[in-house]
Amino acid sequence: MMKVKMKLEYFIHILQQLLQDPSGSGKTTLLNFLSGRLFSENLAISGELFLNKRNLTSIEEYSNQIAYVMQDDILLSTFTPRESFQFVLQLKKSKLSEQQRNLQIQNLIEELGLQKCADTLIGGGLIKGISGGEKKRTSIGIELLTEPKIIFLDEPTTGLDSSTSLQVINILKKLAYKGMNVIATVHQPSTDLFYNFDNLLLLVQGNIIYQGRTEDSIDFFTKIGFECPESYNPCDFFMKIMNEQGFLMEKMIEDDDQQLALDEDQIKCQFQERLNLLKQNYEKQDKSEYYNQQNIEESAQILSIYKESSFWVQFILISKRFFINILRAKMSLKLQFFQLILFSFLFIIAYYNIRNINPDTQPLIYFINIRGASYFMVNAFAFQSVSQSIFTFNSQKSLYIREKATNLYRVSAFFWGKCLSEFSFQIIFPILFVFINYFIVGFEANLVKFLITNLTMILLAWHGSSYGFLVSILIPKYEVAIALISLIVVPLSLLSGIFESEQSFPIYWRVISYFSLFKYGYQAMCIVNIFYFFIFIFFFFQQIEFSK
C-alpha cells in the first residue's frame, strides 16, 4: 500500500510550477490526486489540501476550474485537431452560435501554432497523421477549451525532441503569463527547459525536499553541501543526489575499494540519511515569500459552470463522431471486406454442389448440406463480430476514460451512440454475404426465406457485438481478452445443438446453452430453410411405409 502525505497549501497559486523527481517518486500520483482522478483502492491518502488558506474537504470543490493533460496523447486518430476542438466545444458550450465556436477554435489554433496541421488527421497506428509535438499541443488545446484556472500536465515533453519540447514549454509559459496556473511534471528536462519554469518542486519517495524559485535552487543545495558543477545540467545534478543509483555512482567514483566493501543495506542506509538531511533542510526553508494574497484570490475565482448539454445533443454528436471514425478507418473497412470475400469464396467452394442435389430424390443429403451451410454462416459471422467488437471497444476505451473524467458527456449517451454506429455498420456485411452466397450455393429461391435469412444474420452480428462488448468489460486488457476469447466462444459453439442434441446435455450444460449465440442463430436458420423440408421428409417416409 502506498501512502501519500503532503501539505500543499501554497501549491496552487504559483505562476508556473515544475515538479521533478526520480521515476516512481509519486509525481503522477500527486497530479492524479490533485486533479480528482486518483481511483485506486490500494492508496491510503492522508494530509491536508488548502486553497486560499481554506481547507478543502473534497477535490470536487474546485474540479470545474482545473484541467489535466496526461502523459499519453489520447486522441481520436481519424479526427483533425480542428474537429477535436469542435466536438468538445459543442458539448461544453452548446449554447454558443456556430460562428462564436469557430472564432474561439481559430483563436486557439493560432495560439497553439497549429495552423499548418489544423485540418490534418491526427493519425495513429495505421493512419498517418501529425507529429508528436502537434499531438501534445492538440491535447493541451482540448483542455484549454474549458478556460481552466489551473492546468496540470504529466510529463508534457516525454518523447519529444529538444526543439519541440521547448515549443510546448513556451506555450505553457504564455498561458502562465495570462494568469493561468501551470503545473507540470518533467523527468530530467534540458537546461533550457529547466530555466523556463518560475518555480521548482522536488520530490523523493513522496517527500518534498525543495520548493521555491527555480533560479534559487542551485544556491539552496550549495549551502547544504551539494554543489552543482559548472556547465552541468541542474536537473541531472538534482536527479543524481535524489536517486539511490546516483548515490551508488558517487560512492564508486569516490573510492572503488570502499565500494567493494559496501553492501546493499549500507548503501540504502546512507542514502536514507541523505534523504532525512534534505527533508530537514526543506522544513527549515522560509516559505512565506511565495504567498501573494492577491494572486491567490485571482487564481481561485470559481469558473462559471457550463450548463451540461442535453442527452440528445450528446447522443447525436457522439453518434456522428463514431460514424465518421468508421468511414475514415479505411484500412479496417478494407480488412473486413477482404474477410467477407474470403469467407464467401470458402463457402461457395464447400457448398456449391447443393444446387445440384435434387431434394425430391436425395432428401437426406440435401438436408445435411443445408444444415452444414447454415452452421458455416452462423459460425463465421459470430466469430467475426465478436472479435471485431473487442478490437473497436478496446481501441476507444482510453479515449472514453479520458473524456468521462472531464464530465464531457453522460455514460448513457456514449453507450447508445456507440451502439447506433456499430450496429448500423453491422447491417452492411451480413446483407452482402447473404446476397452473394444465398442463390449461388443453392438455398431455396424464396423471397420471404431470403429476407428472413438476412434478418437472422444481422441479429447474429448484433448479438456477437454485444458479446464482444461484454468480454471487453469483464477482461479489461485487450491482449488477455483476445487470448481467452476462444475459451469462451468455442464452448458456446459446441452447445449450439448441431453436434449433439440438447436433450442429451447434462442439466448444467443445458443451462449454459441458453447463452449461446450460435444456438439461436443456427436454430433460426434451420427453421427458415429446413422446417418445411422436415414436413416433406415425414410424408416421404410415410409414403414408403404405406407402399410396403
UniProtKB/TrEMBL annotation:
<dbReference type="GO" id="GO:0005524">
    <property type="term" value="F:ATP binding"/>
</dbReference>
<keyword id="KW-0813">Transport</keyword>
<protein>
    <recommendedName>
        <fullName>ABC transporter domain-containing protein</fullName>
    </recommendedName>
</protein>
<feature type="transmembrane region" description="Helical">
    <location>
        <begin position="455"/>
        <end position="475"/>
    </location>
</feature>
<dbReference type="InterPro" id="IPR013525">
    <property type="entry name" value="ABC2_TM"/>
</dbReference>
<dbReference type="GO" id="GO:0016020">
    <property type="term" value="C:membrane"/>
</dbReference>
<feature type="transmembrane region" description="Helical">
    <location>
        <begin position="337"/>
        <end position="354"/>
    </location>
</feature>
<feature type="transmembrane region" description="Helical">
    <location>
        <begin position="520"/>
        <end position="541"/>
    </location>
</feature>
<dbReference type="Pfam" id="PF01061">
    <property type="entry name" value="ABC2_membrane"/>
</dbReference>
<dbReference type="InterPro" id="IPR003439">
    <property type="entry name" value="ABC_transporter-like_ATP-bd"/>
</dbReference>
<dbReference type="InterPro" id="IPR050352">
    <property type="entry name" value="ABCG_transporters"/>
</dbReference>
<feature type="transmembrane region" description="Helical">
    <location>
        <begin position="481"/>
        <end position="499"/>
    </location>
</feature>
<keyword id="KW-1133">Transmembrane helix</keyword>
<feature type="transmembrane region" description="Helical">
    <location>
        <begin position="423"/>
        <end position="443"/>
    </location>
</feature>
<feature type="domain" description="ABC transporter">
    <location>
        <begin position="4"/>
        <end position="230"/>
    </location>
</feature>
<keyword id="KW-0812">Transmembrane</keyword>
<dbReference type="GO" id="GO:0016887">
    <property type="term" value="F:ATP hydrolysis activity"/>
</dbReference>
<dbReference type="Pfam" id="PF00005">
    <property type="entry name" value="ABC_tran"/>
</dbReference>
<dbReference type="InterPro" id="IPR027417">
    <property type="entry name" value="P-loop_NTPase"/>
</dbReference>
<keyword id="KW-0472">Membrane</keyword>
<dbReference type="GO" id="GO:0140359">
    <property type="term" value="F:ABC-type transporter activity"/>
</dbReference>
<dbReference type="Pfam" id="PF19055">
    <property type="entry name" value="ABC2_membrane_7"/>
</dbReference>
<dbReference type="InterPro" id="IPR043926">
    <property type="entry name" value="ABCG_dom"/>
</dbReference>
